[in-house]
Amino acid sequence: MPSTWASVGQDGDGDGKADITNPHDSIWTQGHYMCDLGSQISSLKQQNRVKGDTLELTLAAYNAGLGSIIQYGGIPPYAETESYVRKIIDLAKRKYTSSDSGRIVGQLQPPLAMLNAQQIDIAAMGIAAAAYGGPSGYPYKQCTWWAASRRATIGKPVDAHLGNGGEWGASARRLGYKTGDNPQPGDVISFSPGVLGSDSYYGHVAVVEQVNSDGSIIISESGASLPAPMLRTLTAAQLSSNKTGITFIH
After folding, report:
1. How far is Cα 160 from Cα 91, in angstroms, rounded to an integer?
2. What is the largest CA-CA distance in the chain?
3. Which residue of 47, 154, 185, 208 has the smallest Cβ count within 10 Å?
4. Alpha-carbon gap, residue 82 to 87, rounded angstroms
5. Tell me, what's the pLDDT at 93?
6. CB-based contact 171:159 (threshold 8 Å)
7. pLDDT grade, residue 205 (50/70/90)?
8. Considering Cα of 78, then 181, then 98, then 153, what sign does the dihedral take?
9. Phi, psi of 51 (to 5 degrees)
10. How far is Cα 112 from Cα 222, in angstroms, rounded to an integer?
11. Is the Cα torsion angle 33, 39, 45, 49 positive or negative in sign?
């Protein structure tokens, strides 16, 4: 909008003029503007003033204004805004990320070392009982710590600053990781907040250990309330009915 450009327009090509009809200037400005909105959203989330996925909230703020996000504590209940966010996220998945290669049946290698039928022996696997990625990385025992640690054991490490579990899907897409809707052994599975028992604010992440021919999967996961990383089975029906809140990071 002209009023928005008047306050945020930048000179992207260095010709001394911020020209909205010049692609160098307009694209440069758009990137800076979205990053600024994203930073403000992150700050508001840290203050517990808004809740939700950072990318989705940023898109909603662009469409409806940051004031509306603050007013409703999240994505405002505007049909246009809700549709806009869904449309952009869908386009990003379909046009600007690698296509999903489909469900792959099998078990992850190397296999887990187990204390018993359910609990995983991290010491036997050489996984340290310490934060992953240093003090600013993922705290010990959290779901993010386990997902990153397990991926490291299979030679597919992930970034140490992908955010809360529910943010990993959006962060992975933003950083160029291959993502999709169908599981493969070794995938990280990111759950949006509240999906399949995940925390209503932070969401959750786990690792796909096995994909079965009936569409069910076995995941390994950790959490502060668990005595050790554990195994859990998710049925095909559970995955299907919650697919909009699940992302697989390949």
Report:
1. 27
2. 68
3. 47
4. 9
5. 66
6. yes
7. very high
8. positive
9. -135, 150
10. 14
11. negative
Determine the length of the chain: 250
pLDDT in tens, 83-127: 999 999 877 766 555 444 555 667 888 889 999 999 999 999 999
What's the half-sphere exposure (Cβ side, CA atoms, 13 Å) at 203? Answer: 24
Could you tell me the end-to-end alpha-carbon distance of the chain, in angstroms, rounded to an integer? 38
Q: Which residues share a beta bridge with 221?
A: 230
